[in-house]
# Entry
Amino acid sequence: MDNGTGLSQEQKQYLEAFLSGVAARQGAVLGPGSSAHAPADEPGAPDPHRAAQDRFIAQGKTLVPEERAKRERHPFEIWDDMNANAAAGRFPKGLDVFRHKFFGLFYSAPAEDAFMCRLRIPHGILSAHQARGVADIARKFGAGTIDITTRANLQLRGVGAQSAIAVLTAVQDLGLTSRGAGADNVRNITGSPLAGIDAHELVDTRPLARALHHHILNHRELYGLPRKFNIAFDGGGAAGVLADTNDIGFAAVEPAPGAAPSGVYFRMLLGGITGHGDFGRDAGILLTQEQCVAAAVAVLRVFIAHGDRTDRKRARLKYVLDAMGMEKVMAEVARELPFAPLRLPPEACLPRRPVEKHGHIGIHAQKQPGFSYIGVAVPVGRLDAAKLGALADIAEELGSGTLRLTVWQNLILSDIPEARLEAGRLRLAALGLASETSFVRGALVACTGNTGCKFSATDTKGQALIIADYLDNRVALDQPINIHLTGCPNSCAQVHVGDIGLLGLKVGDDMVEGYTILVGGGAGEERGLAREIFAKVPMPEVPHRLERVLKAYLAHRNAGESFADFTRRHSLDELKSLFA
# Structure
């Protein structure tokens, strides 16, 4: 029996012994913690990460275990060990669990005795061939389950220990990668989901995301950051991408007449991390499209030099800005740039076009005459392999063979001729997927939850669907509402920017699953952090509480008033009284 690896037990034992021997020989020749490559801190190959670590050590501070792990052995040097583990059907232990994340492999124990494999899909765009291939990989090597993430990305669940290398190589055979998809690296580069097909966009952001994606992949010094790092490009069109919640958000703008040479530029927003109470701060400059990649790399180098290596909770760009101030950070950035950016305050630029909330759902005309896109509502972002394969078929047979993932865990099928739209709608319905959905479900966002994440206190995906079913049957909304559920304070589902945010936790002496309820969050022109309105509500009570919240909003709002505006013009005490 080959256990899905294609190898007999005898072959597996031979391969394990051979690869272990290679690793042992390498260690004997090069010394403990060494690799077949020259260390980055040798003359001619400076390692900015080690230099930053050394500064903390010189101050008498202690590096966190993850920094020590990277210092002792670079994660990209464990490939032979990973091969040996796969041959033996072993999962990693200790700090090697962290190192595996550099390859996009997350050992999910105790929630799941399996790997989750996270991909990198720049701008969230993949071809039908790639989507079909991902479905095949999930079916062959995993549990057949694929999640769309809040970074417009895909994750494959239920990957066995023996299949780790097979999954990584199969992903690369598709022209995709998982390299740097986890741990202390730049995460998937996101961009406006309608880039290139949006009649209202200022600029197509796809080439920028692609260029930065490949720059990072090919510069090893941009891996192993003090902590994870998020970057997004917003092209200024009808659909946003939550750019101001990223460590770097590039927002397309046009300067006001006479303020600067005419054209489309990008403003750079720095330090967004809403789970820590901050949106991106404007850096005070205009960048041309050709300057954006260099600017991102310059900021990354400043973060590498100054990010905290001794406290994981403060190891984000926000805290570098808090400590140094924007002016000093930008002075450091300027030293890394090969050009002098144009300085211009944000008020000297024309306002951004309002985002069409839930505009990523439904059938909409593209800027290409005679063509439309279909925004598909994927319940809590979860698909099985068969559905992903069927979606690839629809995209290829009715459109251009393009699938676009969104940060709201939905997807878009683009470039469909008008004559084929009804066929597309019917085929989606046959799959149990909808091109039209309620105002509750249009941006119903949920993290992985405790069925696949050891940090989560609650079954966010399952409970999100229970809440949506309950509300759809009892509340008649006439405006979109974004509901975000996350199972722990890491807030992968960004609860602080949802109209309603649900933060999972255990409640009471019996430690039942429940949520703290927040209201009034938003991003972009609705920018604001949600405020806590109810603490520690057991899950069975949550749908009833939300029903009261939404019915009070409908009863007491001003004409046409959004949920965000309604909650923000009332104090918390007033809201509690209205929601009682």
